[in-house]
Amino acid sequence: MSTAPIVSFRDTVKVFPGDGRRTAEVRAVDGVTLDVHAGEVFGVIGWSGAGKSTLVRLVNALEPATSGQVVVDGQDVTTLGEAQLRRLRAGIGMIFQQFNLLSSRTVAGNVAYPLAVAGWPRAERRARVAELLDFVGLADKARQYPAQLSGGQKQRVGIARALATNPRLLLADEATSALDAETTQGVLDLLRRVNRELGITVVVITHEMDVVKYLCDRVAVMADGKVVEHGDVYDVLARPEHPVTRRLVGTALRDRPSPAALERLRRRHPGRIVTVAVREDGTSSHDLTRALREHPVDGTIVYGGITEIAERPYGSLTLELDGEPAHVEAFLADLARSTTVLDLGTAADPLADPDAVGPRATGGAA
């Protein structure tokens, strides 16, 4: 993968003005500086209204930036005229949540449409359409119409259409939000093939953490128009620093007990309750086993979950610890040298969670 940016935002701002009476001005993108590297799958995630969809629409100037720069493939989009923008957009594919297919055209006709606009000869259009429909697994649907397709099939047509003119960059704006879980997985696998087999840079806009942790190489987290955290997807999601990121991770991974679940655990388990992070290198689980063996403390797993982020394991285990208080403290201090330990206290002396999803950190190298 190249480290050269194919998209660069530099102090980019997008303001939607109010009408001066009933609606206020909205800073949908507020001073974003960010690079998307050529050849990667880059995710932009955040709650509804965070500004992520507006950010991606600045890339192909479907929304013009208010200030700052948006540089795509070496060209500052904010300085281009309409004719130059048309040429730029030919190298950018886009897929949408609601598919945006032409109902009056067949599957083949939808895929061929951008080629006809680009002036491809008819024979070349037919060959390219056949190639793309085979790639997305819809070669047998060429003569059907969108109304005859499932949601997943419609999105595959949308992907084929977006790939028609051989773009270097593919923008996917909530591309799986209208699909069920099984269909979503198939579309994500297809986007992964687009990236790995065709070498196309993919920018994924989503509010779904499962999409990011399965598909993306790097991720940016947005809130109130700003990028609050970004970097390698595993580092950001396994070691979230910003409260917004921690809430997103907590709601998606569900590896830590909610406040209600924690209360139920405390009624059944009077001992010290702690949550131990599990990371990709296995050090956390190995150290947990070693510490339980070396300290006179009994540990029982009462909650937990392990998942994958970018094909690397991540999660946590919640345990009830029984033993002399001094022995428990020594055990926690030992474990905290190599991993994150979140102390929830006991039923008699509970400790509050600052993130409102569970645990307080007692230390460790996350």
Structure report:
- This protein has 366 residues and is α/β, with parallel strands linked by helices.
- It contains twelve helices and 15 strands.
- A six-stranded mixed beta sheet has the order 6-7-8-3-9-10, sandwiched between helices. It has a five-stranded antiparallel beta sheet with strand order 12-13-11-14-15.
- It is elongated, with a radius of gyration of 24 Å.
- The two termini are 27 Å apart.
- List the secondary-structure elements in sequence, H or E: EEEHEEHEHHHEHEHEEHHHEHEEHEE
Apparent shape? elongated
Gap between N and C termini? 27 Å
Give the neighbour order of strands across the main sheet.
6-7-8-3-9-10
What is the CATH topology classification name of the largest domain? Answer: Rossmann fold
The CATH architecture assignment of the largest domain turns out to be 3-Layer(aba) Sandwich
What is the CATH first-level class name of the largest domain?
Alpha Beta
Radius of gyration: 24 Å
Structural class: alpha/beta
CATH superfamily of the largest domain: P-loop containing nucleotide triphosphate hydrolases
- How many independent structural domains? 2
Beta-sheet strand percentage?
Answer: 25-35%
The residue-averaged pLDDT reads 89
Largest sheet: 6 strands, mixed
Helix % is 25-40%
Low-pLDDT regions:
356-366
Features:
single chain; 366 residues; Rossmann fold; Alpha-Beta Plaits; 2 domains; 6-stranded mixed beta sheet; 5-stranded antiparallel beta sheet; 12 helices; 15 strands
Summarize the structure.
The protein has 366 residues and is an alpha/beta fold.
